[in-house]
Amino acid sequence: TDGCGEGPWGNVVEAPGDVHVDPSSSGVDADGSRAAPFNVLAQALDGAIGGRVILAAGDYAEGILLNNDIELIGRCSELVTLSGTVSVSTGWTATLVVEGGPDVHVQDVTISGDEVGLAALNGASLTLSRVVITDNSLYGVFVYGSNTTVDVTDSLVARTSPLDGAWGAGFYVDKGQVSLTRVAVMDHSLAGVTAFGATAHIALDDVLLARTEAAIPGVGRGVNVQHGAGLTGARVAMLDHPEVALVAVHDGTQANLSDAVIAHPRGQNTGDGGLFQTNAQITLTRVAFDQHVDAL
User: Fold this and answer.
1) Is the pLDDT at 271 greater than 50, yes or no?
2) pTM over 0.90
3) Could you read off the pLDDT of 36-82 as tens digits, one per residue?
4) CA dihedral sign, ordered 293, 247, 221, 193
5) Confidence band for 274, pLDDT divided at 50, 70 and 90
């Protein structure tokens, strides 16, 4: 918490129009100012379209649905947790849902709920900075729709478990586009990053993908691209995956890696399977394999 600053708002510099939330405040005569913050996040969201909502330290046990332009900024991810759930049209719930065409920025919070951590749907444009998405189930981040974009920087996505025996992926991208820069994706039950569909694309830059846990015996993948999806990666480390580090299958699927390391496979066939490719194209430039029996 050394980087969290002092007082309720830490290092967040106040800007005109900011709306403030402090769950420890009484909420009496609240107007969203620093002197009289709301104590319920939903109240702040109603009055902050196009502006910033600033979150003091606390656990916000409210499901959040965002369908307007907004910035959601916490004091710091160590002290601000979003943990509620809201229903999604897919039938499961998520802690934070961004839907439609809004531009949304989320910064300096932890997202940790009972089911999916974050869902970006149907044309949403979402940026995440210094965010921790951890201890969710099914998917840490779910992205759906050919016009949906998610850009993540300086963040951690970790420990997604299966839900009713299904999945347990850090990122699940169905037709959307995801960019990860200086991101660690670790300790997921089935896969770090998965993408499906001809308009799905994942861009990785300075990314660590490590330690899938093989919730299904023998299955544990770092990156899984299928059905025409694309992957580009530079300065990527794929470490400690039980089954295979990178899977690329089906016509039209492409994966391009440069300046990468694929190492330390484990499981029943430790040393096998750095990459698995069927009817897809994989291009490698300056990629090192370590401790594999069959790299390809």
Assistant:
1) no
2) yes
3) 999 999 999 987 888 999 999 999 999 999 999 999 999 999 999 99
4) positive
5) confident
Q: How much is the pLDDT for 273?
A: 57
Q: Which two tokens stand for residue 252?
A: 């039209």
Mean pLDDT computed over 146-154: 97
Spatial distance between the Cα atoms of 218 and 59, rounded to a whole number of angstroms: 37
Q: How far is CA 198 from CA 5, 139, 177, 201, in A?
A: 44, 21, 11, 8
Distance from the first to the final alpha carbon of the chain: 43
The burial class, CB within 10 Å (0-12 / 13-18 / 19+), for 42 is: middle
pLDDT for res 41: 94
DSSP β-ladder status, 93-99 and 70-74: unpaired
Half-sphere exposure of 16 (CA within 13 A, CB side): 0
Q: What is the distance between the alpha carbons of residues 247 and 223, in angstroms, rounded to a whole number?
A: 6
Pairing of strands 93-99, 86-87: antiparallel
Alpha helices in the chain (DSSP H): 41-46
Q: What is the DSSP string of 53-109?
A: EEE-SEEE---EEE-S-EEEEES-TTTEEE---EE-TTSSEEEEEEESS-EEEEES-
The pair of structure tokens assigned to 205 is 């830059």
At 148, the amino acid letter reads: T
Could you tell me which residues come within 8 angstroms of residue 240 by beta carbon, excluding any fewer than 6 positions away?
A: 210, 211, 212, 263, 264, 265, 266
Query: 155: Cβ–Cβ under 8 A, 6 or more apart, which residues?
Result: 128, 129, 130, 131, 132, 133, 182, 183, 184
Q: CA nearest 89: which of 49, 116, 68? A: 116
